[in-house]
Design a protein that fits this description.
- The protein is an alpha/beta fold.
- It has two domains: 18-274 and 285-341, Thiamin diphosphate (ThDP)-binding fold, Pyr/PP domains (Rossmann fold); 348-381.
- It is 45% helix and 8% strand.
- It contains 15 helices and seven strands.
- The protein has helices at residues 20-23, 51-76, 90-98, 113-118, 123-131, 140-143, 154-169, 187-199, 218-221, 230-234, 246-261, 291-298, 302-312, 318-341, 360-375; strands spanning 105-107, 175-180, 203-209, 212-213, 216-217, 238-242, 267-272.
- The strands form two sheets. A five-stranded parallel sheet has the order 1-2-3-7-6, with helices on both faces. A two-stranded antiparallel ribbon has the order 4-5.
- Helix 2 runs antiparallel to helix 13 (302-312), helix 2 packs across helix 14 and helix 3 (90-98) packs parallel to helix 11 (246-261).
- Bound molecules: thiamine diphosphate.
- Residues 111, 150-152, 180-183, 210, 212-214, 275, 279 line the site of thiamine diphosphate.
- Residues 111, 150-152, 180-183, 210, 212-214, 275, 279 line the site of thiamine diphosphate (TPP).
Length: 381
């Protein structure tokens, strides 16, 4: 008897569908570099990275950390309104971003300064958003880096839509969306995962499980055994990786991106890491988590372990280390100087790219802004 629920064979929507057993993720984290900087073999994932590329991953993590630290200082000095630090998440961001092709597209949240920098986005342009002087100011097309989403989870839908567009065009482009653990509870994320699974979209959901959504710990975020297990319900293969291991995050992302490009559909990656700073500069994390927990995370530092590995393999010495640190500090200083000097954008642009046919409310708000600017002596257009 024909099961009428079965679509005709060859239905593109059923390509690459997997059984429950095939989808069940391993509980253990993929780890190619442990906290002591010792490299391990993995039966499935390898990071085929040459010596120069290893040093480059290390350099990027240091540069990202320096700009991140500078951004916190800038906020403390009143130069940024608010800033969401990625301290401790450098391996998750640099490793995954380094696995993408130039033609791929990233759909980030507000915490992805590191991913943006690896994509070649000038951090000053991203920090305009935090300074309130401009909207996301980079060219998304030049870098394959969409404007950061502040509403949680919305970027997952943008990524899936974009990926489906690429699929329909036959373009070998993969969309990668970056989400937090909290974002996995959002309706938008659910819809994005459902759609991606059903349609076999060339998309990677890169979840940085940094253990907290503001003050909500991941244990209270979900009753699922792990965030990766959620993939089973969407028919999406998932993998858990040590998010503080830059080689591990590179390897699992590389595989996911390659599979997506080969028409094998989406992947959910759970990169297990830790947010060592407060949620944002407006948050006081000491109110909801013990200091010892943060200190324990410091011992798993992604940069330290990479330094240990490089030194043990004669790829880094004191002089090279100093060079990396000096260059990172120099860049952070340049970011500060250029941010001070950057012109303020025209606030009217807030209204420029939203609706083709503006709604009544929208026009009222634009008029209100125009009046306010007039009162401040900023000539109307
Ligand atoms: C739709 C929506 N709801 C609530 C918020 C307020 N909010 C900002 S950040 C955040 C927590 C997000 O946590 P997570 O997804 O784990 O990402 P993380 O900030 O830890 O990187 C919330 C609830 C928001 N920005 N958007």
């Amino acid at each position: 008897m024909v099961d009428e629920r079965e679509p005709a064979s060859g239905d593109p929507h059923r390509r690459g569908r997997r059984t429950a057993e095939e989808l069940l993720p391993a509980d253990e984290l993929v780890q190619l570099l442990d906290a002591d900087g010792v490299r391990h073999e993995h039966p499935r994932y390898t990071a085929e990275v040459g010596d120069d590329a290893l040093r480059e991953l290390y350099r990027w993590m240091n540069v990202v950390r320096a700009v991140d630290r500078e951004s916190i200082h800038l906020q403390r000095q009143g130069q940024l309104g608010v800033y969401a630090s990625g301290l401790g998440q450098e391996a998750a961001q640099v490793g995954s971003a380094s696995a993408l092709a130039d033609a791929d597209w990233v759909f980030p949240s507000y915490r992805e300064l590191g991913v943006g920098m690896v994509r070649g986005v000038d951090p000053v342009r991203l920090l305009h958003l935090n300074r309130g002087t401009w909207l996301a100011d980079h060219d998304p097309h030049e870098h394959g880096f969409a404007p950061p989403s502040i509403p949680i989870g919305t970027q997952a839908l943008h990524a899936v839509g974009f990926a489906l567009g690429a699929l329909f065009d036959g373009a070998p482009i993969v969309a990668v969306t970056y989400l937090g653990d909290g974002a996995t509870s959002e309706g938008d994320t659910h819809e994005a995962l459902t759609f991606a699974g059903v349609m076999g979209a060339p998309v990677v959901f890169f979840v940085q499980n940094n253990q907290y959504a503001i003050s909500v710990p991941v244990e209270e975020q979900t009753a699922a055994p792990t965030l990766a297990h959620k993939g089973v319900g969407y028919g999406i293969p998932a993998v858990r990786v040590d998010g503080n291991d830059v080689l591990g995050t590179y390897a699992v992302t590389r595989e996911a991106v390659d599979r997506a490009r080969a028409g094998e559909g989406p992947t959910l990656i759970e990169a297990v890491t830790y947010r060592r700073e407060a949620h944002t500069t407006s948050d006081d994390a000491d109110r909801y988590r013990p200091r010892e927990e943060v200190e324990a995370a410091e011992a798993r530092d992604p940069i330290l372990r990479m330094a240990r590995y490089l030194r043990a393999n004669d790829l880094l010495d004191d002089a090279a280390e100093r060079e990396v640190q000096d260059a990172a500090a120099r860049l952070a200083g340049e970011v500060r100087a250029r941010l001070y000097d950057a012109p303020h954008g025209d606030p009217r642009e807030l209204f420029s790219h939203v609706y083709v046919d503006p709604t009544g409310h929208f026009e009222e708000q634009a008029a209100l802004l125009e009046r306010e600017l007039g009162e401040r002596g900023q000539a109307p257009r």
